[in-house]
Amino acid sequence: MEDTDDDVPLILTWDDANSGLLSEETERGDENGGGGYDIVNNQVIPTPGPPPNYRSHNASLQQSWEMNYQEAAIYLQEGENNDKFFTHPRNPKALAAYLFAHNHLFYMMELLTGVLLMVLSLCEAPAVPSLRLDVYVHATLELLALVMVAFELCMKLRWLGFHTFIRHKRTMVKTCVLLLQFVEAIVVLIRQTSHLRVTRALRPIFLVDCRYCGAVRRNLRQIFQSLPPFIDILLLLLFFMVIFAILGFCLFSPNTSDPYFNTLENSIVSLFVLVTTANFPDVMMPAYSRNRWSCVFFIVYLSIELYFIMNLLLAVVFDTFNGVEKMKFKSLLLHKRSAIDHAFQLLVSRQRPMGVSLKQFDGLMRFYRPRMSSRDRFLTYKALNTAGAPMLSLDDFYKFYEVIGLKWKARRSGEHWFDDLPHTTFLIFKGINLLVKSKAFQYTMYVVVAVNGVWILVETYMLNSGFSWSRMVPWSYIVFLTIYGVEVLLKLTGLGPLAYFSSGWNLFDFSVTVFAFLGLITLAFDMEPFYFIVVLRPLQLLRLFKIKQRYRNVLDTMFELFPRMASLGLTLIIFYYSFAIVGMEFFADVVYPNCCNTSTVADSYRQINVTIGNRTVLDEGYYYLNNFNNILSSFVTLFELTVVNNWYITMEGVTSMTTHWSRLYFMTFYIVTMVVMTIIVAFILDAFVFRMNYSRKNKEPLLDPEDENGIVFEAEVSRDEALATLELYKKTCPGLSSLNSLQGVLLAMDRSGSSSLVYLGRRSRTKSDLSMKMYEEEIQEWYAEYSRENLPQSDRSLVERELDIPPPCPERES
Amino acid sequence: MEDTDDDVPLILTWDDANSGLLSEETERGDENGGGGYDIVNNQVIPTPGPPPNYRSHNASLQQSWEMNYQEAAIYLQEGENNDKFFTHPRNPKALAAYLFAHNHLFYMMELLTGVLLMVLSLCEAPAVPSLRLDVYVHATLELLALVMVAFELCMKLRWLGFHTFIRHKRTMVKTCVLLLQFVEAIVVLIRQTSHLRVTRALRPIFLVDCRYCGAVRRNLRQIFQSLPPFIDILLLLLFFMVIFAILGFCLFSPNTSDPYFNTLENSIVSLFVLVTTANFPDVMMPAYSRNRWSCVFFIVYLSIELYFIMNLLLAVVFDTFNGVEKMKFKSLLLHKRSAIDHAFQLLVSRQRPMGVSLKQFDGLMRFYRPRMSSRDRFLTYKALNTAGAPMLSLDDFYKFYEVIGLKWKARRSGEHWFDDLPHTTFLIFKGINLLVKSKAFQYTMYVVVAVNGVWILVETYMLNSGFSWSRMVPWSYIVFLTIYGVEVLLKLTGLGPLAYFSSGWNLFDFSVTVFAFLGLITLAFDMEPFYFIVVLRPLQLLRLFKIKQRYRNVLDTMFELFPRMASLGLTLIIFYYSFAIVGMEFFADVVYPNCCNTSTVADSYRQINVTIGNRTVLDEGYYYLNNFNNILSSFVTLFELTVVNNWYITMEGVTSMTTHWSRLYFMTFYIVTMVVMTIIVAFILDAFVFRMNYSRKNKEPLLDPEDENGIVFEAEVSRDEALATLELYKKTCPGLSSLNSLQGVLLAMDRSGSSSLVYLGRRSRTKSDLSMKMYEEEIQEWYAEYSRENLPQSDRSLVERELDIPPPCPERES
């Protein structure tokens, strides 16, 4: 660590005086040879000003470094967030706006504004009855939220500059929608009544644009990328539909008792619904009862449309999806690499253009992760610096994103949490530990769970007379709960809370047991609304699936998929929201009991009293419940439409009460959900096939017990190193509080009496890690290609000058 | 072609005198070193007998060669059919049986017997009304068919030998089923009435065992191989179902108006049906109308079961399927290679152990493809012999299966069929040819088709009052038909019938146009039952899909998939058949109009007259049509169950008229079709993804115009060669008729005056060809592995002795 105080940065940034000039020139310098070097040199000792003495030189140098650290941190952040570099702040004013707009408080505000705007539709007419608000209240709330959005947009404008701002498509769309909503909200406030506001369907844009909704944005992009081939096949589907509609009309319209094919329009609608199978076999029945051979028409149609073209659709989307996933991974990877390149250039000094010293790295980290403790900053540096050289080379630095998420912990000297306890206590706990780790204990518990399962089944079966909440708690409930409670306590004491809760399965056991206890309490105290907790008891049975490897794999994959599934679900909800708004604007209150008498589905909307014998029974069709009367009902209705079965009853009901153009809404919704659902299927297929290929390729089960906890890095810290680092840190940032953690390391060494400590950094394995391993060879190619295209000529010539390497001959390059 | 008359075969087979000894010893010879060589030598000049003179020696030699040719042909046939070698005939008696049982007449008989047995159920009670036969008639027919099967089995026993016969599982199952059916048929004949014959469900076994149903057998095997992972996931599905059933029972049974969850059994059945979505949202409605939050239960259940686990099922099957496909391809490939190895050993002579001469190859082909003309035999030899060496090496011979299916044709000297016509005529035809090949003509036709499409649509839309057959033929029909007719004629004359019909699209155009003409004729002559031909007219519109590359690809893939899809369809029909028989035995005539009044689905079976105003309308539920009253109705009912929508109405109807154990039948059927359907989806997915990967990997569209016709081989035949070959053939088989084709070659040469002719061998590209290219690298590994394991030591040492190659050092081998 032979770091001197007057290292001069290779590149300078954001100089207050002539920032515009500088950044331009720096860029130019990047392009042509060693030009940047001279400019940099000029910048360090600014000519317009008093002649520099050593002190001011040093202070300005320090300031330049701080600037560089900050810009490097921003580059790395942009790499992490996949922000394009053309939005990189170019001057101090932009920087201030950038910093303002890039912290969790601001993100949170963005998110809350977006959510508030969407939630408003709960209270706007047609509102959920219990949440109805007066017009001036919700319109004022809306205006408030819109002002917030406008404020956020202003910050963005300040940061991006006008030119970049209007080039950024998403932001422009957002601005337009904002203006529209603004005008509409004011109109509502003035008229004191809501008009037909279909544009509310555009509100999700504010949510989607949030930083935290990046996954949703990616999903949307992926959906749009999969669209072209999807639409092609869809056209094929519709084409066959029209041909068969004409055939069906010709064949079946002479049969007057067949309502499905009596006009060409009905014929097309019937066959559209038939693709979803929702009206099968009813649609066939009138024709079939007339002539048995007419079933051939329907069998051929379904075979072509449902069993062939629909699967084709899946195949095409699956294939596109695969390609898009890989391309996305590639571009993310290369973007990160490029960010690291940029940051590296800002961190190297004129004296040592090949490496980043600990001092510079620490400066970077203070900006990149302000909350990170000094110990962890140092350990991260150690983890990067695999070669043990005094500097980080660019190759070391490329691993930045792999180590940045590690959680550091000292390697335990002992294995168990109770190692430090007195001998007798130790023996007891050791016994418990051995017990809970034994196979016998495990299998006993499986048997208990299985018996419990059978018990619950039999018990429920016996209850056939009808379940009643007020009944006494069965003794079996208490017995099994006691057993589970004892198990949890034993495991907790035997393994220690930390080890216990680090396993997802244990967490699951624990929470189910706690829920069961809560259920017992609700039963004991007669708290009616929480009774449902009691019935969660059978979830214990899920533990049985730990026994078999395949199930463990499946469930683990399920948990791994969960974040991505959640974002896909959110994407679906955003589509739902837009459709719900449109549905509410047009179809609110159109269906009600005993409506739709002119349609073929009148039965499903009927609600009449029928007298059977001497009892009067309410004969309910219930479908009037599937309405668009408020946003929650709309969501449920849309979910039913997504499931597709009997969706035409809802469609026909609404159509009979409005115009037959309403069908367009339902059919569009069907096609949109079909796209999203196909993407979801393709995604699940892809994720599983990927995992299975992965474990086949690496000839190992994906989760061997050793690295079940994910990625592990190791760093050994010696006493001298720790002391030297502490000195360095004291010099660079004298604030004492941030150094506590590093002093803690020294204290721990003193306590254990050893001259070095080993720290382990862990993080869970992500899809990206798996992809890295899967595409190993391709990644090398991508990197090679990338460096051919992107390595700036300047760096290269600089490096070469420094090391006296002759420029590569053309032959060697090829 | 320095073939001498007294080449001695390296291995001898099926010697009449001591065949058992020989075949055993030959095998032993294969195992231990060059031993086979000596034994062979001993065999050739049999010691017990008169001292051999040259003539008898020569005759016996000739006979030995013929034997070898035949056995080699059988080996190659076994390789082609994927018959295991342990069923290879071992002695002349077995050979006779083998030959008897391996020709198309026998196969046809097998197939017909199988079909007859299955078709019988059309006539057995409950029969299709118009096909009903008396008991003694159909029982006698059945006995007849069973005797045929028994005869076939006897032939197989003779060929395989008792020991192999009882080891062959499929044959043993067939025998048992045969015995059972025999006894039952006799019982039926004696009692003169059919008893409960569920065992008829086993009849498809006779069909599946046919040689021609190999694809179905492979499908079945693949289905069974995909079962274990499928069942695992199915258990997961059922497990969640039971858990949710308990929860549902606890939550919803207090609601007395909810018939879906009032007992645990109903709860499980409701949730089973819900996985198929068939009762959604009805199953939710009673609970939903009571408490709006109960929808959460159903949404969570459907999300887990339908959207997650069902997709998981597809993923697992897709993955297994991929693996199975590859393994199948590998084993087929290696089996063929092994067959070629065996055949090669039989064809080489003691004098030349490294190669097969034309004479031997021709001898083989006379057995392998008796109908092949001498010209084609020679051309096949030329195609194999790429190096132009006097012999085929083993490596040449490995390509045997690639060239055997080629259809040979002399390369046309001219391009068009009308090249030989007089000049004026030639010019006219040339003009037509240029016209039909021009883009303008093509696009004009597309426009015509599109206009026709719009016309038909508008015309049909105008007809909204109802379609009537007796109406006059619209003039547009005649106009468009004339245009299409002219187009077909122009293309036929311009391209020549051969070129015209070689394109699938042209064939399609042609047949649609012919159908349209037939339609016109039926209209003109008022033939009512054939009216449906008229409405096939819109199929013309399919031609529009030629415009875009993706559609061409999709439709081509569709045609390529067709054989495989057909075999999958047949597999499905076999499952249908078994289920139909079981259904008929138990549920025939249980549902009828106005039955099932005790069930919740009584409405669907109702058939009553309703008086609305002053009109009496028949209010029909129609579901009584979905019955098991005869095998055709059963098939339609089972198809409806396959489509799944509303299947529970059929299930509940039947259940209410029988016992609730009937549900087991319907649920089992659902699971079985789910397996088959998932396999079909996986197959389509696989086929398309494979094709797309293929074209990506080879950076070319799959069907570039050049090799649209598939695989092409070229062979040039010079005059001298042809003459020499003719001489050789005359010597080996003096029958003149078979030489005509070779003499034809010489005649063609004389006519054209050239000293050589080029022949092109074509065949369509199969999936196996694509796989060969896809797995190129892996195939090399498989081969290497295979030869390490299988190359008999004897061959190697023999070869080495012959060529004086030192045995490879261990280092070189590794």
From TrEMBL, chains A, B:
GO biological process, one term: endocytosis involved in viral entry into host cell
Pfam family, one: Ion_trans
Ion transport domain ranges (all copies): 105-326, 439-689
GO terms for MF: calcium channel activity; identical protein binding; intracellularly phosphatidylinositol-3,5-bisphosphate-gated monatomic cation channel activity; ligand-gated sodium channel activity; voltage-gated channel activity; voltage-gated sodium channel activity
Residues in the signal sequence: none
Reactions catalysed, as given in the entry: Ca(2+)(in) = Ca(2+)(out); Na(+)(in) = Na(+)(out)
Taxonomy, superkingdom: Eukaryota
Cross-referenced InterPro entries: Ion_trans_dom, TPC1_animal, Volt_channel_dom_sf
GO cellular component: early endosome membrane; endolysosome; lysosomal membrane; monoatomic ion channel complex; recycling endosome membrane
Segments crossing the lipid bilayer: 105-129, 135-155, 230-252, 264-284, 296-318, 443-463, 475-493, 565-584, 664-689
Annotated membrane topology: Multi-pass membrane protein
Bias (Basic and acidic residues): 797-814
Annotated spans, Disordered: 790-814
Keywords: Calcium, Calcium channel, Calcium transport, Coiled coil, Endosome, Ion channel, Ion transport, Lysosome, Membrane, Repeat, Transmembrane, Transmembrane helix, Transport, Voltage-gated channel
Subcellular location: Early endosome membrane; Lysosome membrane; Recycling endosome membrane
Quaternary organization: Dimer. Interacts with MTOR; the interaction is required for TPCN1 ATP sensitivity. Interacts with STX7, STX8 and STX12. Interacts with JPT2. Found in a complex with LSM12, TPCN1 and TPCN2.
Family: Belongs to the calcium channel alpha-1 subunit (TC 1.A.1.11) family. Two pore calcium channel subfamily.
Functional summary from the UniProt entry: Intracellular channel initially characterized as a non-selective Ca(2+)-permeable channel activated by NAADP (nicotinic acid adenine dinucleotide phosphate), it is also a voltage-gated highly-selective Na(+) channel activated directly by PI(3,5)P2 (phosphatidylinositol 3,5-bisphosphate) that senses pH changes and confers electrical excitability to organelles. Localizes to the early and recycling endosomes membranes where it plays a role in the uptake and processing of proteins and regulates organellar membrane excitability, membrane trafficking and pH homeostasis.
Name used for this protein in its record: Voltage-dependent calcium channel protein TPC1
Gene for this chain: tpcn1
